[in-house]
Amino acid sequence: MDEKRKILVTGGLGFIGSHTVVCLQEAGFEPVIVDSLHNSRIEVLDALTDLIGYKPVFICGDVNDKILMQGVFAQQKPVAVIHFAAHKAVGESVDQPLLYYQNNVAGLLNLLEVMKAESCHQLVFSSSCTVYGEAQEVPVKESTPILPAASPYGATKQMGETILRDLNWCRVQCLRYFNPVGAHPSSRIGELPLGIPNNLIPYLTQTVSGIRSLLTVHGGDYITQDGTCIRDYIHVMDLAEAHVAAINRLISGIGFDTNSNEVGDPSTQQFEVFNVGTGIGYSVLEIITAFEDATGEKVIYKIGPRRAGDIVSIWADTHKANAILGWNAKRNLDEMMADAWNWQRHCDKASLG
Ligand code: NAD
Ligand code: WQD
Q1: Alpha carbons 288 and 204: distance in angstroms, whole number
Q2: Which residue's CA lies nearest to atom 13 of ligand 1?
Q3: Which pLDDT score is estimated for 261?
Q4: Distance CA 334, CA 176 (A)
Q5: Cβ proximity of 188 and 324 under 8 Å
């Protein structure tokens, strides 16, 4: 394999990382995975092996381990990195902020130091719509002002963006994900929440499969068309494909002034940020109806009190990603719901989750 096609995927056994590994391989890249298994299972590697037709290089380790990471870069010589590895539970970040700053911010710094030393100058970073907070206007554009973070988790994503914007030696594509849902259509990989899920779709599918008794809709008195909050749900396969588009743009050098000193010249555009959503907002009740229509299953739910910290409405303006990355979300809500449900049934059969 041409080393120029090797992409290091940190957190590559996680939810979004595993789907991206599949899309990278389909696009002719060779994914190399580093994952600590903190929030994923080794069985995902077997599923990936089946899906891509060979066993990808996997290093079980922590991005905070500098010696390990130096060895990975020296041996694998990836041309670019996609950095998924992070903790992502908002509530946990409020209880354990240092854990989040250590893993998400110090982990990024450690990765960057090794990348610089090993002359790897191209990075795709997992950011989040959480950086916008309760925006004054929707849909949010990349230029919409960033508000003070509502949680330490959100702060780690804002800090990550700030750090990366300041670099003058590394080309960065920063992707702000909206709400990823669904699973690979094969149902071999998907989201594996540990314990009681916080997010809507895994809670909903676990309710329908009988693991939870009912779904509580967090608040029915918001100023929206049906009183429930609005989000931009995106199929995880569409999100994974956005990473391939970002990697293609990075390694082609398009958008970066390659006539200057390439890396190291502060006058060159080194940092780009993109919203990655569908551009459509759906309420919680619309999601429940869409799930019932897509699967023929009934969702047992009640309207409960508002959840602290929830924003009312957010969805993405995706024109920048459409125009510059040449990427569009292709899968509709029906596919998101059907794939999420098929994945839940697979987990039930395999006693996962
Ligand atoms: P995930 O927890 O499923 O995957 C993250 C993976 O990283 C896990 O396999 C975990 O074991 C690994 N990991 C964590 N810390 C590590 C470390 N220090 N070293 C090595 N491996 C480590 O999460 P996900 O949903 O796939 O999210 C991936 C990225 O996308 C994260 O950065 C997350 O903050 C971001 N993001 C997620 C969402 C979402 O709703 N899922 C939305 C916006 C942004
Ligand atoms: C969606 C909607 C809930 C559960 C979170 C993070 C954010 C980003 C994406 C990483 C909301 C409602 C939920 C339930 C419900 N992650 N809901 N009953 O809050 O938009 O975003 O994931 O970056 O940072 O905060 O996603 O799936 O938790 O909620 O009514 O049992 O579903 O109130 O309106 P959220 P979510």
Answers
A1: 8
A2: 85
A3: 44
A4: 23
A5: no
Note whether 292 and 207 are within 8 A (CB). Answer: no
Measured between alpha carbons, how far is 249 from 146 in angstroms, rounded to an integer? 25
Q: Which residues line ligand 1 (CB under 6 A)?
A: 10-11, 13-17, 34-40, 62-64, 84-86, 88, 103, 107, 126, 128, 177, 179-180
CA 57 to ligand 1 centroid distance, Å: 19
**Two tokens, residue 344:** 């839940």
Q: Which residues pair with 123 in a beta bridge?
A: 81, 172
Q: What is the pTM of this model?
A: 0.97
Q: Any alpha helices (H) in 122-261, and if so which ranges? A: 152-166, 200-208, 236-252
Tell me which H or E stretch contains 287: helix 284-295
Helix (H/G/I), strand (E/B), else coil: 20? helix
Nearest Cα neighbor of 170 from 74, 80, 287 is 80
* DSSP string computed for 105-153: IIHHHHHHHHHHHTT--EEEEEEEGGGG-S-SSSSBPTTSPPPPPSSHH
Q: What CATH code is carried by the domain that includes residue 19? A: 3.40.50.720
Cα–Cα distance, 339 to 208 (Å, whole number) = 14
d(CA 162, CA 155): 10
Structure-block tokens of residue 150 = 């509502």
pLDDT tens per residue across span 5-62: 999 999 999 999 999 999 999 999 999 999 999 999 999 999 999 999 999 999 999 9
* Amino acid (one-letter) located at 258: T
Q: What's residue 237's pLDDT?
A: 99
Structural domain containing residue 84: 3-352
- Residue 174 has a pLDDT of 98
Distances (CA, A) of 266 to 165, 166, 171, 257, 284: 11, 9, 11, 11, 45
Tokens linked to 97: 């902020």
- The total domain count for the chain is 1
As annotated, the active-site residues are: 153
